[in-house]
């Protein structure tokens, strides 16, 4: 199963709006005879690739799959039936499918007389498929907030300069994060200060993410780097914004609340267009708005071994008034990236008991 989880990760960034899935098939003696992963939306699923690799050796064997085999016919056929038809006698999957349109594969397998078990390495498989699982369960894209800061938490110097806080190695790693995401999002402040490009560079075979610029007054100039043809771009503006100077730019007009776009007002239409994962690269104000809205599912911080002492903090107001309201995180990884430290963390679920302890 752990090998199947590794295989599933190869599909990150290319399978949306479908999940990433890996499959390993062993023969009757337990030897691996087939491997596969879901490579692209609309293409064969992981089980089909693995069955093709295994051939006749799959008969009487076991399939290890990271997600419950699907039970419906969409652009491809139901994998539960494919496994049964190949003579697989045992199926072990990590995570049950929460999508009501595709779930029920386990029951179909059991009805066919196939020994079926669920839950093996479920936590690891969930982590690897977090974006898709979050989007299905919550009906909105999974959001990763990425930031770079000094050890004293500054995202820029006092004069506003911020290039480059993090190392070249960290910046290259961010391109990997972009390649694994459906969309990259920045706000108006970042647009004006940095003129970001946001396309993926240096990642072979990468699918370019949708570049989203949140610019309520449509102040973007036509020569902005984000408007080139390196990747698709969506400009999010207020309902009454004058965009006549931006002909041909795809627009999403949204209502404003106190001059700002509501976080969920934005995430809902993105979900409808098939966006399942968003990399939030905006500045501290946009990050604070997303955190206050409860729409940050993962935090990735690149901490540079440097001190500034003054300048904007990495995170602005997030509606937290006292220490008891601090958004607690669970650190899932801490690794060196060049001279920097990359920390990955996910929010700790807020429970009644946790809130009581904090008070």
Automatic annotation (TrEMBL):
Keyword terms: Hydrolase, Metal-binding, Multifunctional enzyme, NADP, Oxidoreductase, Riboflavin biosynthesis, Zinc
Pathway info: Cofactor biosynthesis; riboflavin biosynthesis; 5-amino-6-(D-ribitylamino)uracil from GTP: step 2/4; Cofactor biosynthesis; riboflavin biosynthesis; 5-amino-6-(D-ribitylamino)uracil from GTP: step 3/4
Limits of the CMP/dCMP-type deaminase domain: 1-106
Catalytic activity: 2,5-diamino-6-hydroxy-4-(5-phosphoribosylamino)-pyrimidine + H2O + H(+) = 5-amino-6-(5-phospho-D-ribosylamino)uracil + NH4(+); 5-amino-6-(5-phospho-D-ribitylamino)uracil + NADP(+) = 5-amino-6-(5-phospho-D-ribosylamino)uracil + NADPH + H(+)
Enzyme Commission identifier(s): 3.5.4.26, 1.1.1.193
Co-factor note (free text): Binds 1 zinc ion.
Transmembrane segments: none
Pfam families documented for this protein: dCMP_cyt_deam_1, RibD_C
InterPro entries: APOBEC/CMP_deaminase_Zn-bd (IPR016192), CMP_dCMP_dom (IPR002125), Cytidine_deaminase-like (IPR016193), DHFR-like_dom_sf (IPR024072), Eubact_RibD (IPR004794), RibD_C (IPR011549), RibDG_C (IPR002734), Riboflavin_Biosynth_HTPR (IPR050765)
Names of the cofactor(s): Zn(2+)
PROSITE patterns, sorted: CYT_DCMP_DEAMINASES_1 (PS00903), CYT_DCMP_DEAMINASES_2 (PS51747)
Function: Converts 2,5-diamino-6-(ribosylamino)-4(3h)-pyrimidinone 5'-phosphate into 5-amino-6-(ribosylamino)-2,4(1h,3h)-pyrimidinedione 5'-phosphate.
NCBIfam families linked: eubact_ribD (TIGR00326), ribD_Cterm (TIGR00227)
Family listed: In the N-terminal section; belongs to the cytidine and deoxycytidylate deaminase family. In the C-terminal section; belongs to the HTP reductase family.
Protein name (Swiss-Prot/TrEMBL): Riboflavin biosynthesis protein RibD
Species assigned in the record: Streptomyces virginiae (Streptomyces cinnamonensis)
């Amino acid at each position: 199963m752990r090998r199947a989880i590794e295989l599933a990760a190869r599909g990150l960034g290319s399978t949306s709006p479908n999940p990433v899935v890996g499959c390993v098939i062993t023969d009757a003696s337990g030897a691996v005879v087939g491997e596969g992963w879901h490579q692209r939306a609309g293409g064969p699923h992981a089980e089909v690739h693995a069955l093709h690799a295994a051939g006749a050796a799959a008969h009487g064997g076991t399939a290890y799959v990271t997600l419950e085999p699907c039970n419906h016919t969409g652009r491809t056929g139901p994998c539960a039936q494919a496994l049964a038809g190949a003579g697989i006698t045992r199926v072990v999957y990590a995570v049950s499918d929460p999508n009501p349109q595709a779930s029920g594969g386990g029951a179909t397998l059991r009805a066919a007389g196939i020994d079926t078990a669920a839950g093996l390495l479920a936590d690891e498989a969930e982590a690897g498929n977090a974006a898709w699982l979050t989007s299905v369960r919550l009906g909105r894209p999974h959001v990763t907030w990425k930031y770079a800061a000094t050890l004293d938490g500054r995202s820029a110097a006092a004069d506003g300069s911020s290039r480059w806080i993090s190392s070249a190695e960290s910046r290259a790693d961010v391109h990997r994060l972009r390649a694994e995401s459906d969309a990259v999002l920045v706000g108006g402040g970042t647009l004006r200060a940095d003129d970001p490009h946001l396309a993926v560079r240096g990642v072979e075979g990468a699918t370019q993410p949708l570049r989203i610029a949140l610019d309520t007054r449509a102040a973007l100039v036509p020569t902005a780097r984000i408007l080139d043809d390196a990747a698709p771009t969506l400009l999010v503006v207020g309902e009454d914004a004058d965009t006549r100077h931006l002909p041909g730019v795809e627009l999403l007009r949204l209502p404003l609340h106190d001059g700002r776009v509501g976080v969920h007002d934005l995430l809902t239409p993105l979900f409808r267009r098939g966006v399942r994962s968003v990399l939030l690269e905006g500045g501290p104000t946009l990050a604070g708005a997303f955190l206050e809205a409860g729409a940050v599912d993962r935090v990735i911080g690149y901490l540079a071994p440097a001190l500034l002492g003054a300048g904007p903090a990495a995170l602005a107001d997030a509606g937290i008034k006292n220490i008891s309201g601090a958004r607690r995180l669970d650190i899932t990884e801490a690794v060196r990236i060049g001279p920097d430290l990359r920390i990955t963390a996910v929010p700790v679920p807020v429970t009644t008991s946790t809130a009581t302890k904090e008070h």
